[in-house]
Amino acid sequence: MPKTVFDKIGLQSKLMAAFILMGLIVFIVGWMGNSSTDILAKHLYEISEVRLPSIVGLEMIERGLKNTYTAEIALLNTRLNNVLRQEQIHKINEYWQQINAGYKKYNSLPRTEREEKLWQNFLSAWQRWQQEHEKFMKMYKKYHREGIFNPARTQLELLSQGKASSQEMAAAIKAGILLEQMNIQIFTLSRPAFNAAETALQKVIKENEEIVIAEKQAADKTVSLIRLWVQLGTILGPVTAVILGIGLSLAIAKPLSRTIFNSIDKIASFSSELARTVEEQERIATIQANSVNETTSTLDELGHSSQQAANLAQTATVSAKQALELAYSGTSVVGQTLEAQAILKQKVGDLAERIRQLSQQARQIAVISSLVGDLANQTNILALNAAVEAVRAGEYGKGFSIVAVEIRKLADKSRESAQNIRDLVAEIQMAIDSTVGVTGEGIETVENAVQMVQKMADAFIGVSEALNKVVETNQSIALAAKQQAQALARVVDAMNNINTGARETVSGIYQTKLGTQQLSEVAVNLRAAI
Q1: Any idea what DSSP says for residue 147?
Q2: How much is the CA Rg of the chain, to the nearest whole Å?
Q3: Residue 467 reports pLDDT greater than 80
Q4: For the stretch 453-486, what's the b/e string if a residue is b when 16 or more beta carbons lie within 10 angstroms of its beta carbon?
Q5: What one-character DSSP code corresponds to residue 109?
């Protein structure tokens, strides 16, 4: 049997065409319903938001016009007293406020072209009537100022009283003339203007009523159209779905059965080959997983060893740094000791110089003491000669004799003091000589100590340089060990990932094996079911 065009179309294309057709039907029905709803909303808006407020405003104007004209006629009634007349004037003001409110309400709303022409005609007629109204109100004000609201009766009363030529009669006649003019104004001039304005306003109101009727009819048609589309969609959708379902079932079932049988045979054959391949892959993957697991353990141990080496190198570096700091401290202390020894040497030299100066001063004191002793001996001799001369002088030399004795005493004391000074200076000189010797030895000792400290400083510098090299070496070792440990850690992570992947591969292969077995079972069951 030759294939038709429909048979040549694929299953996916058939399904897509069916769904597109259903979607197109739903779209058309929905679009038409939405469009009709928008049109209905416009009609409702025109009626509720434009025409009804327009009619309300126009009716307010109409009531205000009629009531104002009625109140004007009431003012012509000669039986009204002043209180009732004031009430009518107040009502006229209220009616005009009502007219203005209606005008504002209607004038702010949109209008059609024909409605605008009718509205302009009304405004022209209204202005003419308003002018006539203002003329009437001016006449009434004059009439009201006269204070005579029934001129005919007043004239009769004045005639009966014999006051035909009085001022009251003249006022009554004037009031009668004004009343007559007001009647002429109302019934002859104002009435045609009022009738024209009322007629023009009725045309505007009628135009709005006709627009409301037209909008209502259009809305009713739109509602009918919406109902039609809803009914059409309600009927057409299920019918189309049933037709497409039956057609697709007939067009798909037979070719699909042949395709399924062929696919089942291929699946069965493929699943058998796939099962054998999966078993082989499972065995290889298991071996790889075991190898990767052993390699990971070895690398993990190597990583721990590298980390321990890095820790030991780091500890050695810290110890070497501490020793280096101590060496730097020793070098600093030795430097300070050298500075102190240099200062001590300088001070000892200064002390020796001062002692030599003191020795010279002691010798000078000894010379001075010797001179003082010689001077005391000479003074003693002179005092002795003076005493001899005083004895020779007799009575006149007694006072001089006493002075000579005192001088001798002083000379003796001076000689003794000079001797004591010479003895003391001799002891000081001996002490100074001894101190000079000790100072010289001290200078030699300081110089020797300086040399020893200098050697110690050189030794500390050598130790510092050696420790610095040790620190640098340990740091390099620690860094290398740390880098090696990190590299091994990354390798271990990579091997763990490989190991995880291998396990997942084994698990996946196992799941594939199970899936292949289930696929074979499904193929067998499907063949049996078909």
Answers
A1: T
A2: 73
A3: no
A4: beebbeebeebbeebeebbeebbebbeebbebbe
A5: S
The answer to whether residues 223 and 39 touch, using CB atoms and an 8 Å cutoff, is no
Q: 414 and 372 in contact (C-beta within 8 Å)? A: yes
Taking residue 415's Cβ as centre, other Cβ atoms within 10 Å add up to: 18
Contact of 42 with 50, CB cutoff 8 Å: no
The string of pLDDT tens digits covering residues 152-206 is 888 888 888 888 888 888 888 898 898 899 999 999 998 999 999 999 999 999 9
Q: What is the pLDDT of residues 250-266, one digit of tens each?
A: 665 555 556 656 655 66
- Sign, CA dihedral 452-453-457-459, equals positive
- Residue 73 structure tokens: 């006629």
Residues belonging to the chain: 530
SS (H, E, C) 384-400: HHHHHHHHHHHHHHHHH
Alpha-carbon span 405 to 388, nearest angstrom: 11
Neighbours of 303 (CB within 10 A): 19
The pTM of the full predicted model, rounded to 2 decimals, is: 0.40
- Asked if 424 contacts 375 with a C-beta cutoff of 8 angstroms, the reply is no
Listed in sequence order, the residues at least 6 apart from 97 whose beta carbon sits closer than 8 Å to its beta carbon are none
